[in-house]
Design goal:
Layout lengths: L1 H19 L3 E4 L4 H16 L1 H7 L1 H6 L4 H21 L2 E4 L2 H22 L3
Antiparallel strand pairs: 1-2
Keywords: Membrane, Transmembrane, Transmembrane helix
Protein name: Membrane protein
Organism: Granulimonas faecalis
Length: about 120
């Protein structure tokens, strides 16, 4: 249940984010948009995120880990754009500030759900 579990956790976290964070909206349906964005976000987190973490390691160390949130926000923006461009559905993010808050919410909800469900 590795990737599927992470995808479902990310899907639930994305739905929570769409409903809580102002400036983030579902495109293409209240369930279909977050589901597509969660799929793209999960794929981006598996493929691109480790590379960006290694590249941004010096800045992350200098900022005591706060730059890691910026990396998450950039990947959320990229995943949102990619889902809408390729699949035609996803989430729309108004500003980078909304993406930053959304990345924090997705991280927190994913962390809590992963510890409760028992995924990686």
């Amino acid at each position: 249940m590795g990737f599927i579990g992470r995808w479902l956790v990310t899907f639930i976290a994305t739905i929570v984010t769409v409903n809580i964070v102002p400036g983030i909206f579902a495109v293409g349906g209240q369930w279909v948009g977050p589901l597509a964005c969660a799929l793209v976000l999960s794929l981006v987190n598996v493929s691109i995120k480790p590379v960006l973490q290694v590249i941004g390691l010096p800045i992350t160390v200098l900022t005591l880990g706060i730059f890691y949130i910026v990396i998450n926000a950039v990947l959320l923006e990229f995943s949102s754009w990619l889902a809408r461009a390729v699949l035609g559905v996803g989430i729309y993010i108004d500003s980078f500030g909304s993406a930053l808050i959304g990345a924090i919410v997705i991280s927190l909800v994913s962390m809590i759900l992963s510890s409760v469900i028992g995924t990686d």
